[in-house]
Design a protein that fits this description.
disordered N terminus
């Protein structure tokens, strides 16, 4: 049964929403009030603050049906790089990303991830105002509340490091130097008072150091408080912290550390690769799947209806895709999938005479409702949201090892996935394909292909394009006129600072020459 605990989250969310206002403390005679420190000392206060962050991952608060948390942002990136394709725009949602227009989205991304930063800073400050939890201690001397505090402190650090890594991916160009200016960094000291409304731009080096420090510290606290366990997969844990860190190192070009932390996650966790028998039967719609590390159990209370990934992409849900605005795989990428690869059935390829031709290349074999086998059959939108799978760790390890010239290790991690993607009877063709991956160049190309196919629709396409820096030729099933994307266009795939930030952030208006900002 799908259940959710509301009281603790509601308390935390109320505190977060109101603690910034002067009216939060009742100053009238006869009233009762508490200070922030008193609140922080309440039982489970830190746990409540951290759990209050998680609804940000999936919340939808407006009539904008392309703004529904992390899964919407995953679509932004995959559409921008062209791995996800739109042929029509009957309703217009996400068409700007298909057309490589990012002006309307940069403010949304900025507010989304900095909102998570601000909320996690609240939780981190709550802990540190009382003294950071010890890394070495006698467990018998700690109360359950104190022990859980260390665990949720680790979660807050993980979420902040993850949010900053996402900001780095979108707003920092791949070719930026470590000394170049990037984005502001806010920590607990910066957002503790509301008089500080904007900070200066930090360097790329400082931003990456913040990401790495938060995640390394989180891992230490997870290890120290290892007997505590998250309540559900919506919460982050030690495995997720290691993989986020490994991915940050990979995007930075630090392949040794990328491999180190991806391997640590695999060796210390309980990794599960989606098995062949399940490749076409999960629909990527159920958080209980063993290979899902991080995901949301969508309930009647938390569903966002049409404003959701399945409301945009699944033709078996009542959706924009089922009404004609298909978000499908790029035709050229689809055709590059090997004949032995069962993943080719993740997308349909209806013949020219089939009446369902208008749904060609839709992900009807990867993302589909568990409730229906007919188009528009599901009108409840209860399919779950995936944020991270174990396959991500294996692809990070494979690419990092290959870039470190360790082909055997890279092959082992790649084959852990592809061995489970071979159609029965096509083993010989698969083995022939493996025989072609004897050089670093061919192996690296195969890994890139698997990033684009295995994690299609999960938000990794844009970074794969940026990291590899190679030209891409897109298929005909796109709205955009530009079908050939060259490395010289890479700057167009880096989001500019929102104009609101450059105008209202006083440190940017007074200390930065507008000519130095990447503002359209």
């Amino acid at each position: 049964m799908k259940k959710i605990q509301y009281l603790l989250v509601l308390t935390a969310a109320t505190f977060i929403a109101t603690s910034c206002a002067d009216s939060y403390l009742n100053q009238e005679p006869g009233g009762s009030s508490i200070t922030e420190e008193q609140y922080y000392r309440m039982d489970n206060a830190v746990e409540g603050l951290v759990k209050g962050v998680y609804p940000r991952l999936y919340s939808h608060f407006s009539d904008d049906h392309q703004s529904f948390g992390q899964r919407a942002i995953d679509m932004y990136g995959d559409l921008l790089c062209g791995d996800m394709a739109m042929k029509t725009q009957n309703y217009g949602w996400f068409a700007d990303h298909e057309l490589m227009q990012t002006n309307n989205s940069r403010g949304l991304l900025w507010g989304y991830y900095y909102g998570i930063v601000r909320s996690t800073n609240k939780a981190i400050n709550a802990v540190e105002s009382l003294g950071a939890p010890a890394l070495v201690f006698d467990k018998d001397t700690l109360s359950e509340q104190q022990y859980n505090c260390g665990f949720y402190y680790a979660q807050a650090l993980t979420l902040r490091g993850w949010a900053y890594s996402k900001l780095c991916n979108f707003f920092v160009a791949q070719e930026e130097l470590e000394t170049d200016l990037a984005i502001p960094i806010y920590t607990e000291a910066d957002t503790r008072v509301d008089t500080i409304i904007g900070g200066p731009l930090a360097t790329v080096a400082d931003l990456r150091l913040r990401i790495e420090t938060d995640l390394l510290d989180a891992i230490q606290y997870y290890e120290a408080y290892s007997d505590a366990h998250r309540g559900s997969k919506i919460e982050v844990n030690e495995d997720i912290a290691r993989i986020v860190l490994a991915y940050a190192y990979l995007n930075k070009g630090d392949n040794a550390n990328a491999l180190k932390y991806a391997e640590e996650a695999i060796l210390k966790g309980k990794p599960v690769i989606l098995q062949y028998v399940d490749v076409l039967s999960t629909g990527f719609n159920d958080v209980s799947n063993d290979n899902w590390l991080w995901g949301q159990d969508v309930t009647v209370e938390t569903t966002t209806g049409l404003a959701s990934f399945f409301g945009q992409c699944d033709i078996y849900s009542y959706s924009y895709a089922s009404a004609g605005d298909v978000k499908g795989i790029d035709k050229n990428l689809y055709e590059a999938i090997q004949p032995w690869d069962v993943r080719k059935y993740w997308w349909n390829n209806f013949s020219q005479t089939d009446p369902k031709k208008r749904f060609q290349f839709a992900p009807d074999g990867k993302f589909y409702s568990a409730k229906s086998t007919k188009i528009q059959g599901d009108r409840d939108w209860l399919s779950d949201n995936v944020y991270m799978r174990w396959e991500l760790a294996y692809l990070i390890a494979a690419e990092a090892a290959c870039r470190n010239h360790d082909l055997t290790t890279a092959q082992n991690y790649l084959y852990a996935i592809t061995d489970q993607r071979v159609k029965v009877g096509d083993e010989a063709a698969y083995n022939t394909w493996k025989g072609t991956l004897s050089s670093e160049a061919t192996l690296l190309a195969a890994i890139k292909h698997n990033w684009r196919v295995e994690l299609w629709g999960e938000g990794y396409g844009l970074q794969t394009f940026r990291r590899y820096g190679e030209a891409v030729s897109l298929g005909e099933n796109h709205l955009r006129s530009e079908k050939n994307i060259s490395p010289t266009m890479a700057r167009r795939f880096t989001f500019e600072l929102p104009t609101g930030e450059t105008y209202y952030n006083p440190t940017l208006r007074t200390s930065i020459n507008p000519q130095e900002l990447h503002v359209r």
